[in-house]
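Structure (tokenized):
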């Protein structure tokens, strides 16, 4: 097995793992809603439990002898990226999940790779590789097949509202991916992730304090805290650090396409925890999505 093949395979596993863990949060959010939590409370619980991990990670990543201190401009840009990626995108995504199913949310949210591709071509002036475009179409075909039976929109204003909120989340997340690449390469993935998600945690907690009684987060049902732990560890800490490492290795375009594995991986988790059915059509969709991700990972 050649060194380049091993490196490509590792890149694929890192990016796919980031996406799969990140996608798990939709299922845990739905579980939290069963305990009567609203979107902002669920997000605040997630970020409050995740914040200590990013604080420790940021201190560790900044403690090396050869680590250059961040400038005022760096801090400002990290604050902006944190607002787009893990605060604004998450808030409107959680609000959208109050009105649409997990399957529909995943399908709409994962329009973000096409937004990333379009942005990288129009804004960053990067060439669009036809192999990447073809693999993206293959992955989208897999998503459409996998969710066709269970992710259809329902009539009614609330469903449209949820769909619009999730699409807005996709746009915000795409901006986050586009703005992140240069900074990750320059300041390192661990320090970048710790700072960005740390800012997002602060934004979310401020939002919660301004809209809810501060002590309300300590008076939730016991099961809600279990959902919070799952959201913090599996849905935030692990995928966010894998995100930084994976984006640095793969680049924005390949990261976006490989990351489409996540939505169909959510099918299995939704089946185990929410009781949603899995059928052969979904398996076919998952296989196509995996194929698209592998094709991109194997390209330089």
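Design, position by position:
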């Amino acid at each position: 097995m050649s060194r380049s093949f091993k490196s490509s395979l590792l890149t694929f596993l890192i990016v796919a793992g980031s996406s799969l863990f990140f996608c798990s949060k939709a299922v845990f959010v739905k579980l939290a809603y069963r305990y009567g939590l609203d979107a902002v409370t669920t997000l605040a619980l997630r970020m409050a439990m995740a914040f200590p991990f990013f604080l420790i990670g940021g201190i560790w990543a900044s403690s090396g002898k050869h680590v250059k201190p961040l400038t005022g401009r760096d801090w400002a840009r990290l604050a902006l990226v944190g607002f787009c990626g893990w605060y604004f995108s998450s808030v409107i995504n959680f609000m959208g999940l109050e009105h649409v199913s997990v399957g529909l949310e995943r399908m709409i949210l994962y329009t973000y790779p096409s937004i990333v591709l379009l942005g990288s071509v129009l804004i960053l002036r990067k060439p669009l590789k036809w192999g990447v475009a073809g693999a993206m179409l293959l992955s989208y075909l897999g998503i459409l097949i996998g969710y066709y039976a269970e992710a259809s929109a329902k009539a009614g204003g609330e469903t449209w509202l949820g769909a619009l909120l999730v699409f807005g989340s996709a746009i915000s997340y795409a901006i986050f991916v586009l703005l992140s690449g240069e900074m990750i390469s320059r300041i390192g993935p661990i320090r970048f992730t710790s700072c960005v998600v740390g800012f997002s945690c602060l934004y979310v907690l401020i939002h919660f304090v301004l809209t809810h009684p501060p002590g309300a987060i300590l008076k939730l049902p016991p099961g809600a805290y279990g959902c919070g732990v799952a959201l913090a560890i599996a849905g935030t800490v692990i995928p966010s650090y894998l995100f930084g490492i994976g984006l640095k290795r793969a680049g924005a375009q390949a990261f976006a396409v490989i990351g489409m594995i996540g939505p169909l991986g959510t099918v299995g988790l939704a089946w185990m925890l929410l009781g949603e059915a899995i059928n052969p059509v979904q398996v076919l969709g998952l296989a196509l999505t995996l194929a698209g991700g592998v094709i991109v990972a194997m390209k330089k």
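Reviewer-requested clarification: The mean pLDDT is 81. Residues 3-61+68-298 form one domain.
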